[in-house]
Automatic annotation (TrEMBL):
This is DUF1232 domain-containing protein. Residues 45-76 form the DUF1232 domain. Keywords: Membrane, Transmembrane, Transmembrane helix. It is found in: Endomembrane system. Its main location: membrane. The keyword Transmembrane applies. It is a multi-pass membrane protein. It comes from Streptomyces venezuelae. Pfam families: DUF1232.
């Protein structure tokens, strides 16, 4: 393969990762309503803001053309928020242990 093919493939991968990071950031902001829920622990709420700041910040573990670190942080924040919300929801259900 010549240099043009590698350039096109690299560009496609970079654009795909940027789109994935943008979609995940949008999902994190959509999950922000969970932040007002009193049953969610403070550390999970703080993780939300850390993920947002890290994604927007120009300082990264991996340089910005590769968004793998941003995507990982966003996935971690979404997973933590949703699992904390599920735990809080199940503890509020009638018949759940106090």
């Amino acid at each position: 393969m010549d240099g043009k093919v590698w350039l096109v493939l690299g560009t496609l991968v970079a654009v795909g990762l940027a789109v994935l990071a943008a979609v995940l950031l949008t999902r994190v902001f959509a999950a922000r309503r969970l932040l007002v829920d009193a049953g969610i622990p403070l550390q999970d709420k703080a993780l939300f803001w850390v993920a947002v700041v890290y994604t927007i910040s120009p300082v990264d573990l991996i340089p910005d053309p590769v968004y793998l670190d941003d995507i990982g942080i966003l996935l971690l924040a979404l997973r933590a928020l949703h699992s904390a919300a599920g735990a809080a929801r199940s503890s509020k259900e009638p018949g759940a242990p106090a």
